[in-house]
Batch of 4 targets.
Target 1
Amino acid sequence: MFNEKSIKLFGRVAVRASNHSSSEFKTAQCRALLVHLAMSPGEEQSRKRLAEALWPEEGQGATGNRLSVALYHLRHLLDSLDEGFASCIVATRDSLVLVDTGIAVDFGQFRSSVQAARLTDDVAMKRLRYQDAVAKYSGGLAPEVAMPWLVTMQLETERMFQEAVLWLANDFDARSQRDKAMHVLSEALTVTTTLEPAAELLTRWHLDRGEVHLAKACATRIRRSLISIDVSIGPRMLGLIQKINSQVEPSSH
């Protein structure tokens, strides 16, 4: 049985308690408010700055009222899952804070694992911490929240995920476990399809094995994913694509 209270920020934003969960929020700002508070638990955030973040194009008076409404709806959602859940959000006249009451937040756990991996020289511990981080990452950081204040952290979080994935893949490969290394890369690319360095490494390893069509499929997938977000593919990946085409095209005649 799963009875812990948790907040999920990766993939689709959701809250869970007492074996009940929900990813349905009354408004987009209600969801964004939860994300803002859950990214910094225990940190008081001024109502003024929260209102400016959630309604950047509107005047302060109107947004102050709207923040109160968003908070009301968020508290209602939390208490609908578990009576008293909403008490984790403490509000004063000037600020809001998500208090640290043992609520599991996947984003915080992920970031802590990456930071711990970076700080240790113990390879076994580094491996464990990066594996913990990868396990927590189930998609981009709050992808439904299209707010300017979140963009930098979304990009940084994806870079941290890429760091963990590449380290683990290279670690497995160095221990002569390339199958496991390739599995790590493949799994990561199902979670986040725009990790070009991971796709490049997996493509190269497929080519090393003579798996040209698998290499082509991997390269095609990353190319389409990057095009979809208007990002140019890198020169090393382009070089691999050219190598793949030179091996595939002659056999097609």
Note: The mean pLDDT is 92.
Target 2
Amino acid sequence: GLELTKLALKNGHQVTAIARDSKKSNSLQELIRTHSEKLQIIDADLADPIAAFTKIKNELDGVTLDGVINNAGIMRQNDSLEELLESFKINSCVPFLLTQELLPFLKKSKSPKVAHMSSLMGSIQDNSSGGYYSYRASKAALNMLNKSLAIDHPWLTAVVFHPGWVKTDMGGAQAPLQAEESAQGLWRVFTELTTNESGRFFDYTGKELPW
């Protein structure tokens, strides 16, 4: 999310970024200092979606959104009821419902785009190792939600992305891909999307992935 924000700002875009607590991120604070005219930060915890959605919409009042990238997500490795429900809430329901809340802002754009950060682990066809029930299932659900969203709103280009296995807090130090490389690829794919590609599943190189 941070690297994509940097790229959007570098390319001259007005950016609104959602963070749980921006004051806890030194990197985000530095971006605020250097891009105060282009960057708006909304502190909102999507684990409390009703409160978060209300705050986000109030802050965006009158704004036209050309693009939305839903990047928030969690990984839980067990299959307890609590972890399954939490994973579906954050990984599937929140990005879908937030996008629905933002549709009026996107409709103002001439070429609106939405990308949900999914994962190859959400591909049923690709799953050959099992495990990670809550994460895999919640990402597969996100893929399906996006597909229906793309069908029901043909004016909107809506896709799901696999960012690769990235060195982040979630991906871990053993991941082979640097965040900057993933973000650069995702940004290129996102900015070059056409309406014909809506409802599809791509990785950060632009390769289409199996469902």
Note: The first strand starts at residue 15 and ends at 19.
Target 3
Amino acid sequence: MLPAKAFYLIRHGESEANKAQIAAGGGIDSPLTAKGQQQAKDLAPLIASLEVQPTVIHHSAMQRAADTARYINDGLGLDMTGTWDLREHDIGDWEGQPWAPVMQDINEKVEPPNGETYWRFAQRIQSAFTDVLESEDTEAPDFVPMIVCHGGVFHAMGLLYEYGISEIQNCHLHYYEPHPEYGEFPWKVSVFDIEDGKLVKKPANFCLSQALEDII
């Protein structure tokens, strides 16, 4: 599993493939749309308001993630590292196909023809995240990386822990805090919505039961 260290995780802004509703995994380097660029630019100045500040940015080497990271980093000036193994799921023959039937196959657990299996993808993400989370001195308590990548990466994390993850919106910031007492999915996950020009912290939809336990 992953090292028990806090981190931010965010999907890239809207890409041209997202807009066109076509499947683009690790084999199509789809750029951001103008809307996707603006999503990242709108988020960038709000990062300074976070109670826990990111200290470094790691991002997928794919254009849509790298550009999202660059826009977010405007004004922060953090060190950034691009990593090939943080790329989206390589989905083989599904690349470039209409999204709706591909999504149906994914929901039915059909393996991507001539692509990465779900488990191989999850193992790649586990290895890449471990490298990120262990890339700094373990004695540095303020080390909190921000990882900019893809929607599939969230689902790969869910697969590692056998925990279902709902749909992830473009450029939606998540914060993962290790909580071993939660058992099967030992993370408390918060999301940050932009409301009236401010970041509002809320429990992630896929961790609502954990949030309820905290209240009770």
Note: The radius of gyration is 17 Å.
Target 4
Amino acid sequence: MGLFFHVLLWLQLMGCTGPQDGITLSVGGAPAELDFWQSLVGQFEQEKGIRVDVLRQPTDTDQRRQSLVVALEAKKEDPDVFLMDVVWIAQFAASNWLQSIEHYVETGAIDLDVFFQNVVNFVDRYRGDLIALPIYVDGGLLYYRKDLLEQFGIEAAPETWEQLVESAEKVQRHVRKRLPNFHGFVWQGAQYEGLICNFMEFAGANGGGISIMDGKIALNTQENVKAVQFMHDLIHKYKISPLSTSTEMREEQARETFQRGNALFERNWPYAWSLHQAPGSIVKGKTAIASLPRFSSGKNVSALGGWHIGISRFSDQKESGWELVKFLASYETQKKLALNLGWNPGRKDLYSDPEVLRDMPHLTRLQEVFTNARPRPTLPYYTQLSEVIQRYLNSALTGMVTPQNALASAEREAQAVVDRYQAR
């Protein structure tokens, strides 16, 4: 009887003090990232008394998206809370899979003014409702070898694409005498989502982009043709970008080329900064960042990327889910993500935090980039559009078709996608 009594008492105490109302958080990434998320969850459990089961997803973004789509289409209660790539949100919202969190803001539970307003307004709202919050903000950047610019008498990073070509040709010509594989500029031109981001930046810098108005998509424009022609010419005319740009150049291929000392300029996301500055990196202490150039008559444009957090409409623990969202979007948690994982905060008030800036001084430059970053089209059928456009863009980069013919074909096929979804 005594043993039974003590066991019963222990269970009662655990019931009173142990985590309650278990919820599931779906998050992906490398093993070290997932381990850190687990530690954050442990802190949340201690503070709130709410148990959180971490559903570990793979690093591959497409696999992560598909696993969420399967669960949400089946209207499963788990996961309750999950991270979403910026381009998934419109599809998830249009499918009615996301719980509105607007009423939490209205009650003063969180201050939206601390976040980048362009990000919240263009990405995290759907038909006026707030359905997500930014946890990690991303944008395309120009990395450059400041030592090589100085060595060859180039005073500053290029402000225009024309200046970039001029500087790249000059430095490449001299450096190739000792490094035959050196290139002036590496960027993402393979047939995948990264090509769309690069295209948006080149086209946006010339006043173009992907436009849909009144059910009509505009791709085959003068501004876009000029941008795609320039992308092609970087490889085949100016020859400052490698021939492999259109076949295999993705983020990591570009980063590795630059980090091995084989490029002057690199277009990449902010994640590459810490790797370029890591021990053993040939470019450590020699690298700087700048906004991506513009064309002489255009403006600087950076493609917006990042990860956002939301609550499933099918969750049976929405209130507990909101507590977790609020915790992860807080100043303290996003500061930890910045200092431990190098994540660029979704909160702009962290970009002046002395401790964060000590470890991540480049954030002072990133704040300007993120404030002006441009999202990809926020459409529920964006993935289908992207697959069409990237295929034709890539064919133009290889020289198989002219930029104008590629964009004309892409416009026709993309319009069919638009018509099909609007007819539903």
Note: The longest helix spans residues 403-422.
